[in-house]
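User: Modeling request: complex.
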Amino acid sequence: MRQLLLVASVVIASAVLVRGQAFYKPDTPKFPQARTWVAQRAKLPPYKAPRTPDGVPDLQGNWNGPIGGGNDDLEEHDYIDVTTPPQESYISDPPDGKVPYTPWALAKRNEIRAGLARGWPGETGQRLYGDPAALCLVGMPRSSFGAQEIVQTRNQVILLTANTYRVIPTDGRAHLSSGAKTFFGNSRGRWEGETLVVDVTGVNGETWIDSAGNFYGPNTHMIERWTRVEPNTIDYQITLEDPTLYTRPWTMTYPKRRQGTGAGANPGGTTAASAVANVNNDRYAKEVWENTCIEGNIDNVAEIKSLGFKWFNPMVP
Amino acid sequence: MKHWIIVLVLAATPAAAQDSSTYTPPKTRDGQPDLQGIWQVLNTASWDIQDHGASLGVPAGHGVVDGNDIPYTPAALAKKQENFKNRQALDPLNKCFLPGVPRVTYLPYPFQIVQQRERIDILHEYSRVIRYIYMNGNPHPPGPIDWFMGDSRGRFDGNTLVVDVIHFNDETWFDRAGNHHSDALHVVERFTPTDRDHMNYEVTIEDPKTFTRPWKMSMPIYRRQEKDAELLEYECGPYLLQEEWNKPNSALFNQR
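Assistant: Request completed. Predicted assembly structure:
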């Protein structure tokens, strides 16, 4: 009983802080991301996934996010601090692993980064913006970087995370008109052979791609590609296009591994059932329990505000 | 003359009152009655679950409480009246907290039911709230646990989905009028399909710290008919924080 209570309170207290956060030492080996995965993927034999009763590839189950420190900083970096281990870039294209910002957008990103007040090198010491995720703001594309359960119904793919969801219709319906902006945009999926291709428009640009100030905007168009390349691995790719912010389309790539298979288990990551991760072998271990955010963290949010961080508005040149 | 009588009888029979035994819903692949799809209530319970007149921004409405009276203890009734007087400041929904059960069901936003053998998910457009209703044979976990949405365990009784919910906190309300409960709340929901496009939603409320006896509410739930019906987005918390962030005297931040 006490164990269950403890789990419940820990979940509430830690929702805003990075869930399941691991702490890393400076000598942590560099975590592999896109570069290593793309090389591994090229050596895989062809794979055809089992089909659902509706005849499309079966992606269902519980899938982890990427290994390593999460997308704390999506570009390649050395050890920064205990929560930011050395890591390859998530970006598979362009080959240099950098977000291809326009000069204006790069200056903005660097300005944001200098005002994070995280004690990172190169900061001005001034507080500019806090990571919107710390204010319980969730959106695309970051929601895909955590663990997800995939459920497929007829003409829909449903993604469930610890405290939010996406429903992706695959019935060929049109997007909403471009003026209708939302945190998650509107997702329209279609099957191309083994791959679920999801076209996302209408995002509002009010959240970041990582916690280091890399951003997209309200004009950004995202295309995701979900392909089961092994029984227990989904290759996830997301391409961002936005001529107002980037000089060319760019793509992040990483494998999502099926939970419980040990393949690329994420030491610092979360599972969709992470609320009860501490009660493994318990009959409730596979259940997802209440996962609050603003409810238990309004004091933290108030503190972020009182420290002088500004509200992050969408980036439009 | 005979024609007129038939017409009147049909018109006077609300969907919720139709005999559920005459309708057999299709089955899911797992053999459960299929309740999947996008649904929404069409009433004013979100503002006040009892009979009420209109005021600015509040449509008048028939209540959804059986017999209209809620059997509060004297102390709980006094608290309800206090809540009503200060509802703007006190309603937990105005802080964008999780709405609780059954309030989340009759908010004026659509929700989608997704069925798997061992779990029924209700995805709400409102704040992307997810309800996981376990059908896996596990009983409620041992408490005490204080959750906004409680712990939901479901089963089918014929074609009716019966959901037993306990382990609540005392931080949610039933409506904008200040109707409230304690952490001893026990909710039993019954979702009964009455035809292809309607369900009857009956809720039994039990809370000995707040009420002198159990009481019920009931209402129809309607399948959204739009060809392209889908859940969109209402992210309450982010809208509220953005609104309050630059207010010099923000009640949200200053009361902390």
